[in-house]
Amino acid sequence: MMKLPFAEWLEKNDRFEEAMVAFKDAQRFDRSMRIMQRLAANVAAQHRFKESSNFYWLLARENLSLIKDYTRMDAADLNHYEMYLEFSDLADVYYPYQIIHSFIEEPAQASAASQSQMIQIFNAARFILSKLDKIRSSPNSISLTFVYLALAKVSSNIGAFKTARSAYEKLYGMKLNADWIEQIELNSLQTRSKPFSDRESLQMMCNRCATPNPVLLSGEACTQCLHTFVRSFISFESLPLCEFKPMKGISHRRALELFYSEKVKTGKKAKRGEEDGWTETRYGNEQVLTIGQQEGDESSPFFDKVNEVCETQLTSSEYIPIVLGEDILQTLTIDEVYIVDLTKYCKTFEVKYYKNTIPDVALHVCENCGRFFLLVSFLLHICLLYTSP
Question: What is the mean pLDDT of the chain?
Answer without folding.
Answer: 85
